[in-house]
Amino acid sequence: MSISFEETLRRLRGEFIDICIEKLDSIDIAIDRFISNPGKRGERFPDFQREIHSIKGSAGTHGFSSISTIAHRLEDYVESTRRLSSGKWLEVQIFIDAIREIIESREEPDADRTEEVLNALPTSALPTLETKQGKRVTVLLVMPLGVQRKLVGMELASIGFDVSFIDSPMQAIQVAFAVKPHAILSSQKLSGFSGSELAAVFKAIKAMSKIPFVILTSHEKGSMSQFGAANDVYVVHKGEGFLSDLCELLLSLDLFRRAG
Questions:
Q1: What's the CA gap between 175 and 34, in Å, rounded?
Q2: pLDDT tens figures, 101-139
Q3: What does CATH list as the number for 138-258?
Q4: pLDDT at position 85 over 60
Q5: 204 φ, ψ to 5°?
Q6: How far is CA 148 from CA 79, 154, 170, in A?
Q7: Structure pTM?
Q8: Distance between CA atoms of residues 147 and 114, nearest Å
């Protein structure tokens, strides 16, 4: 007796749902321990990170793109938060509960419901900057994983930006369509791609062409003079005052007017 392709997909989707629920149960236990002992994460914290990353990577494949986005936003929240106190872990639980509600319904929510869920998620940005339409001002930060990325993300969050962290250019394009950022920040030096090349790609995509793009570079000033504000592409040079220059630029871009 042959098994159809559709039946195979249904079986794999069902297996993913069961595995995801098991992972969420494990994460719930870990969070309870983190809340009780916020300063003693030990080996459980890397396990927590791996479980979230696993859910993020698998959910979209099985038709739960909303879960993948929530998991990504949870990773953003953890990375841009200076210290995960007991209160912050309670906010982490909100992300997990949102994922559980969707996975236990066994149905992907429609676009309106997904946006509602995403807007209700906690953010590490304090105070939170909002557009005239009441939406968070989100920036996409495309940088290799490391201390500098975390420092930049925390600084942006501290003045009110909702930060979404991205490792690679290809992931940046995919996430941009899901997150709909109000600005994109990218290191000039990326794996297999340059920030200027990534800027050109975004400017060639009609739906993304009007989003301000900021290239972060350690090159000497003047070496990237071909980029100008007329194209909504800006350059911020790393060095003394780098974070202040970046924040000042972003606050000057009138992102509140652009968004919505």
A1: 29
A2: 999 999 999 999 998 999 899 988 777 788 777 788 999
A3: 3.40.50.2300
A4: yes
A5: -85, -15
A6: 12, 10, 21
A7: 0.84
A8: 32
Three-state SS string across 23-65, please? HHHHHHHHHHHHHHCCCCCCCHHHHHHHHHHHHHHHHHHHCCH
**What CATH number should be reported for the domain whose range is 5-120?**
1.20.120.160
Q: Which residue has the tokens 């304090």?
A: 126
Q: Is pLDDT above 50 for 197? A: yes
Say what the pLDDT of residue 191 is: 86
